[in-house]
Write a structure and sequence with these properties.
With about 290 residues, the chain is an alpha/beta fold. The chain has a single domain, classed as P-loop containing nucleotide triphosphate hydrolases (Rossmann fold, 3-Layer(aba) Sandwich). The protein is about 30% helix and about 30% strand. A hairpin with a 2-residue loop joins strand 4 and strand 5. Helix 4 packs across helix 5.
Length: about 290
Amino acid sequence: MTLEVRGGGRRLGDTVILDGVDVTVPEGSVAGLLGPNGSGKSTLLRLVAGVGDALPGRATESGRVLWRGQDLHALRPRERARRVALVEQDARTEVQLTVRDAVLLGRTPHRSRWSGDSPADHAAVDAALDAVDLTGLAHRTLGSLSGGERQRVHLARALAQAPELMLLDEPTNHLDIHAQLAALRLVRRAAGTGTTALVALHDLNLAAAYCDHVVVLARGRVAAAGTVDEVLVPEVIDPVYGVSTSVLRHPDTGRPVLTFQAATPNGVGEVSAGAWSGPVGSVTAP
């Protein structure tokens, strides 16, 4: 069973943000969602989650989102929240919640409307805080934390939610190198227990190291999708990002390691990252 997006589109007035996107993510895998700034990664995640776009004005959507063959958008929000967790880049709150209370919000879909927090809820929160190494900060307020610490809180909330599908928008944003690796190890560990993850990343080498599949967006359309070895190649990366890519192999894992130089039609030099004008397609990840 899989996550399927068929003909996914979002338009804001006359501006096309997503244009007929087809994506398939196998269940239990970690799929990286890649692409330059403005390519539609965050919009696609919000489309899958069934939440409104952050852009001002009226947006129109098209297409279908299926999870295990069921239309996600046809579910009631509470039922959808039991299946899907979305972690956005800068999830903020005006309420001065403690770290523990913020993570406890992840248990909301699993409680009846009038019931209190159960021992199982508190156990899930304890486990999530421990997983992101924030147990010692549980009683701090969100506003007192660094950007990286807040990012770990939101990841803990998603873990406490115990979703079938995690949608993560730049989960390594604001994190140092150690915390970036730790966060993606958590995502891989969740996938090992059956959770499917679709993760927007800017760092292609993190995608190469931790993802099973990758989807590359360019100008709101799918430029390529498939396994890491199929997609993270110069033939795909160079025209999308406007760079010259070399692919090496990690001596321990055998996974790709990418190095980049800015490229021009005449060789190495400067180029706009938006210079890509090649064809796009909708190649489904196997």
